[in-house]
Automatic annotation (TrEMBL):
This is WRP73 protein. Signal peptide: none annotated. InterPro entries: Centrosome-WD_assoc, Quino_amine_DH_bsu, WD40/YVTN_repeat-like_dom_sf, WD40_rpt. One of its GO terms (cellular component) is MWP complex. Pfam families: WD40. The gene is Wrap73.
Amino acid sequence: ASCVQHRLVVRDASSLQLLQLYTCLDQIQYIEWSSDSLFVLCALYKRGIVQVWSLEQPAWHCRIDEGSAGLVASCWSPDGRHILNTTEFHLRITVWSLCTKSVSYIKYPKACQQGVVFTKDGRYMAVAERRDCKDFISIFVCSNWQLLRHFDTETQDLSGIEWAPNGCVLAAWDTCLEYKVLLYSLDGRLLSSFRAYEWPLGVKSIAWSPSSQFLAIGSFDEKVRILNHVTWKKITELDHPATVASKKTIVYKEVEKSPTVDRERLSFPPTRELASSLFSTQSKYDISQVPVSLQYVKPVADRANPKVGVGMLAFSADNCFLATKNDNIPNAVWIWDIRKLKLSVVLEQLCTIQCFQWDPCQPRLAVCTGTSRVYLWSPAGCVAVQVPGEGDFQIVSLSWHSSGDSMVLLSKDNFCVCYLEREEV
């Protein structure tokens, strides 16, 4: 699904054939599929309205108007039959049922980085709350929206919460001014708390491994700390130095070259294919000899939100690899072998890393840098792929299909679908 101003366009994922076209009341600011792909939600934040469309019954439609309360966020519940709307100033969360048309309210949600999270099996929801100048967490049962647990947290200013994939442990972390990670059980018991240091800036990013065995914490001191699920103690620290010195680490460096054109083929005016090959540069990877000095950017200390520390973390689907980005070294992706707890690969790009995401089915990482190329890494090697098309298609974000056979590449105004062929075994 994609939106063009006030129109919602639904296409077939394999053929891109147009299936449905819906018209909303105003410009669409957010869209989200239900878990069973039967409904799609369109949020019109400026009007405080959510419109829901059905794929099975195109004539059916639903409109939810929050009125004077306004709307700042909207999402589906895991069952795909309830919609959670957050009103302006985070006064409350309204739970709307598509089946019974009933309405429930959750008061005092906290405006933070990540305040509403569901377990992977969709049974429970955790909500960060702020009341009487204190932080709380409420855990709800998603089947009937009954409150299961409500407890306060030992935080000054709760920044976010995240469930482990197995749904047994909830991680909560404090503001960046206070390094503190708290781990709670489903019944609200504090299992452990972790503090790496006291006074400098603290936690910047957090990621659970798919097996729930590891919790990776990215910090402003340019390190990743990994906790184990048995004792919740640190098992290792992963540094991000500006110089890669280990001979066991492979450094792939992106290089550009102008293509060579056979002079006998030159004709004026040149054909479209020849013109595109004449004036476009090609990109490939070279393996650099260690030690390698990476481009290091010194942060501006007197500005808010300095570009410093590990801001992006992601585990591969098989738990074997961890990809990280240190904002001080914006052009590099670090890939760590979790089995050995060692740095395996560094990808040094020509431009700043905008986004990376793992293939959901195998250890294959896709990276984009705001150019018209997408970069793929796997244990077999690394490749740069030019996106065909006219004009300058600058990829700023990407998203894998759940099957791992294709991915969506997004620019500011356009998108394209990249299909990957499977090798015959």
